[in-house]
Structure formats: C-alpha cells, structure tokens
Amino acid sequence: MIGHKRIPSREGGVEIVVEELASRLAADGHQVEAYNRYGHHVSDKKYDEDYGRKGREFYKGVRIRIIPTFENSKLNAIVYSFFATIRALFGGFDIIHYHAEGPCAMLWIAKLFGKKTVVTVHGLDWQRAKWGNFASRVIKFGEKMAADYADEVIVLSENVQKYFLDTYGRKAVYIPNGINKPEAVQCSLIKEKYGLEKDGYILFVARLVPEKGIHYLLKAFRKIRTDKKLVIAGGSSHAVEYMEKIRAMAAKDKRVLMTGFVQGQMLEELYSNAYLFVLPSDVEGMALS
To answer: N or C: where does the chain have the smaller number of CB atoms within 10 Å of the terminal CB?
Structure first.
C-alpha cells in the first residue's frame, strides 16, 4: 500500500480506506505491507502512533514500514512515492496498490520492472485549492500515469469514472467506499469538555483545508438566527494560512466551537448527537463522513 500518510490514522479518508483494506486482506491470510510516510500527524505529533519502528512493526497483521521524505514540503508525496516504489520493487509482492493521484507519478517505475499495479483514485486531487501550480502538475501527471499504465483503476464515484473514460478513454472500476455500521452513543465526553447536548449543535468534521468550504459555512452560519452551536472538528493539512483565516472568522461568532482534531469516543459522540451534519466541499471523491 503506497499513497497514504500513515496508518493507523484518521488524518483523511485515504488513511481510513488503506487501514480497512490492508487489515482485512491480512486477516484473510495475505502478506500486506503499508508504507507510512516519515513525519508527524498533520494535527499534532501527540497523535502519532509510531508504528513501523522497532517493537511496533505490525498493526492488525499489516507490516508497517516508514519511508523517508520531506516532512513539511509540497514535494512530500512525490519523494515519498519514489522511495516507496523502489522499496516495493524488492519486496517480492504480487501487487503494488497506489492510493491517490500524486503518488502515481512513480507508477511507471513499477511497470518498468513488470510489477502489477492497482490504483485507487480517491478524488481529482489537482482540483484542490491548497496545491500550487507545480504540485497540481505533478498530481495531473500521476493521474495520467494511472490511466495509461495501471493494471486496474478504481474510482469512488460514477462522475470520476466518466471523467477517466472521457479524458483518457480508460475504463475504471467503480467501487464506492464502505463504512463500518455506526452505533449511536450518548453525550458524555462532549458534554463534560464542551458543554454540548444532543441536538444542540451543527457539526462539521473534516480537514481544515480550502476545498472543504469551511469559509462558506462560517459566512452562512453568521446569517442564521439560532441558539445552536456550530462545531468545527478537524486539523489542518498543509494549509496554515487557511487555518489562521478560519480561526479568525470563527472568533467573530461566540456560537462557533473549534475542537481541533478528534477521534475515538469523542468523534463517535459528536456524530451521534449532532442536530445536523454539514460538509460544504468544493471537491470530494466520496466523503467517508
């Protein structure tokens, strides 16, 4: 598995999909390795799990390896995917599975050595506002490598399936994301920490990056007359300036609560007790939220 930031992690939908897919394959008896990127959790290093280091090489039967790359750079993904691909060439694997378009920029190397490759396109990442011109071009190149050379391309939505057919003449396999069936839980941690009650708040959960549209949400919420709170749960991801902008906008409305990154019981409680869930994204593949 190449392309995620790290597992276990809820830093994004890619990480959740990779964890579920890899661990389920391992449980079925397959040898699976997941190549985590060197660095810390995008929200804070306190969320690091440190799998892949001595004594913690395996997670749910999946061998975790840490691949070196730049920690804070828009070259992060391409450098990581180069070294991950080189490492995978000598692992004796039947299939190399790339996740997301950027890492696919190195897929041609795997094909040069005759390796079978599968690509899961989680969205048209070059459309995301956080990337500059160079990064967008690299991502678009990765997209083309996937379309031209991957043995199979998996997409999460029918519109992306149509996009690959119209743009590259490539037939992609449509497999929507699955989820584990959630169970409703009562307010406990969120009541104690934030004073939140059932149906007393509107919920947004995602990375705080421009394409998620939090700025639209804050502008709209200010125009609504309601006693309900707006809870914005999530951490930043290579978008420091945008994060600062959102914090400044949120500070103007006392009804807005920014929790930062959340997971586990806290996240389950937030989902279970929200009056309304909103996700005003400009770009989505297939949101797991």
So the answer is: C
Radius of gyration of the chain (CA): 20
153-160 long-range contacts (CB < 8 A, ≥24 apart) are 153/118, 153/119, 153/121, 154/118, 154/119, 154/120, 154/121, 155/120, 155/121, 155/285, 156/120, 156/121, 156/122, 156/123, 156/285, 156/286, 157/285, 157/286, 160/121, 160/123, 160/124, 160/285
96: number of Cβ within 10 Å: 27
The residues, any chain, with a CB within 8 Å of residue 193's CB and separated by 6 or more, are 266
Beta pairing, strands 173-174 & 201-205: unpaired
Cβ burial of 88 (10 Å; 0-12, 13-18, 19+) is: buried
Domains and CATH numbers, the chain: 13-174 (3.40.50.2000), 189-277 (3.40.50.2000)
Please check whether residue 205 is in contact with residue 280, taking contact to mean a CB–CB distance below 8 angstroms.
no
